[in-house]
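Side project, low priority. Logging it here so it doesn't get lost.
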Amino acid sequence: MISVWLWFLHRITGFLLIFFLLLHILYFHVLENGYSASEIENRLNSTKWKTFYLLFLFSAIYHGSYGMVTIIREYFNKSKVLYIFYFLIFVAILYMLFFGLSFIF
């Protein structure tokens, strides 16, 4: 039963990623010229944009890691190599969380 919820969350984060990416491109690359250091600093001091980036970060990390686990499970079913890949994905998740959260905060 839990795998159904994980799969459903994967679909939800995929939809959210499309929404976040379109909003990011529209707002920062089409409507505004948000490339100066002061504009980026102002944006990162806003609670609204911190929330946006946090949701974007966690959606991307979950969606990508769940997808990688699913692909790896198809190729290395019940193998010791499977656990090595799980460990590497876990390390990548920690790496992305550390740098993503340090950028946001």
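Brief comment: The CA atoms of residues 61 and 94 lie 10 Å apart.
Revisit when time allows.
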